[in-house]
Amino acid sequence: MPWVCWDAPGACSERSPLKLLSSDVPSLLFSLALILQGDMDPKTPLAGAQAHLRVLPAAAGVKLFTVKGGPHFLLFTAPDCFKAAVSAFVQQRRAPRAACSI
What we know:
It is built from four helices and three strands. By secondary structure, it is an alpha/beta fold. It has one domain (25-101). Strands 1-2-3 form a three-stranded parallel beta sheet. α2 (46-55) links the parallel β1 and β2. The longest helix has 14 residues, at 79-92.
């Protein structure tokens, strides 16, 4: 379930995934998920990703992978970190580390 913005002052708050989630969301829906987030992203702040992670069911296998120094759109701005995280997640069903640096 990709999206383009977290809750941030003046940034896409009506489309925020935090508005779509509640405590009654089945854990099965999020049985395995990876959140990729750059810590220098001005459009989707790291705090939004962290808040989203706290809303997801505790039993779910949700991992936050932070790219240190990563701006927006990590596929193009941090391709090595993106590839490492996504490849490990798809092939091994886990994120390789909690963070990567560019």
